[in-house]
User: Which sequence fits this backbone?
């Protein structure tokens, strides 16, 4: 029985592949990189002298000499601290007290940009402290939150000071008059309750509408926050005063 005619013919694609393999290659492709065009000599690589002197101490540990002093590359950094609209006027009035600590103490370049409503900080060749830019930003940010200049300067001189911010709604959801009464309990008559919390916990408290900012040490912030949370939840001020007296006496005993 003769084979089907379809099997006797090769596919067109296969026939073209065989023709391509059998055909001699007339022209070779040009190389992508001409090796003759490359330079013979490679540029010299900067090498530092290696110090091979090494001594071993009594315990068998190697002792290396101190590293050679090499000038560190100056890397300029810049920060921009936005200022709220209601703090621009106090910033202009207190600018004579704000920029001297940043320029003289931290060796930073500072300018007040009225158009963008921000204070711009930048390192210079005279800046020696690696954390000077962060300290300057924290100082300006503390002033923008509502703290006094003298209190914000403490952030530049002490390393263990922090700022904690929380809202009343984070503690309890209050609306309308209930929210107003909670803010009034925190402030007290003529601000006496707030001053009592600050003096007992050795912190500074700023009431900005529904936001509360606390400046101080870690443990001191915890004491002030607990007192404020108790007032928000509805505790009577007399009970809060009693707890603050107990905490203040314990803090005096520690010191």
Assistant:
């Amino acid at each position: 029985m003769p084979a089907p005619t379809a099997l006797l013919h090769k596919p067109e694609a296969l026939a073209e592949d065989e023709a391509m393999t059998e055909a001699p290659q007339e022209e070779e492709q040009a190389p992508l990189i001409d090796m003759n065009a490359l330079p013979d000599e490679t540029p010299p690589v900067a090498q530092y002298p290696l110090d091979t002197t090494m001594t071993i101490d009594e315990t068998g540990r190697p002792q290396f000499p101190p590293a050679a002093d090499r000038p560190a590359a100056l890397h300029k950094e810049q920060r921009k601290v936005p200022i709220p609209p209601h703090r621009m006027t106090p910033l202009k009035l207190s600018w004579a007290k704000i920029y001297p600590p940043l320029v003289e103490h931290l060796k930073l370049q500072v300018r007040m940009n009225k158009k963008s409503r921000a204070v711009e900080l930048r390192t210079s060749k005279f800046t020696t402290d690696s954390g000077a830019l962060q300290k300057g930003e924290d100082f300006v940010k503390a002033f923008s939150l509502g703290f006094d200049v003298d209190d914000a300067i403490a952030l530049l001189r002490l390393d263990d000071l922090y700022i904690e911010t929380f809202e009343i709604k984070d503690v309890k959801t209050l609306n309308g008059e209930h929210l107003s009464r909670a803010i009034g309990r925190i402030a007290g008559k003529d601000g006496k309750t707030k001053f009592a919390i600050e003096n007992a916990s050795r912190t500074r408290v700023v009431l900005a509408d529904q936001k509360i900012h606390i400046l101080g040490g870690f443990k001191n912030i915890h004491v002030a926050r607990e007192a404020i949370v108790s007032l928000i939840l509805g505790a009577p001020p007399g009970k809060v005063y009693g707890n603050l007296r107990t905490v203040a006496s314990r803090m005096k005993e520690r010191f």
Summary: The radius of gyration is 36 Å.
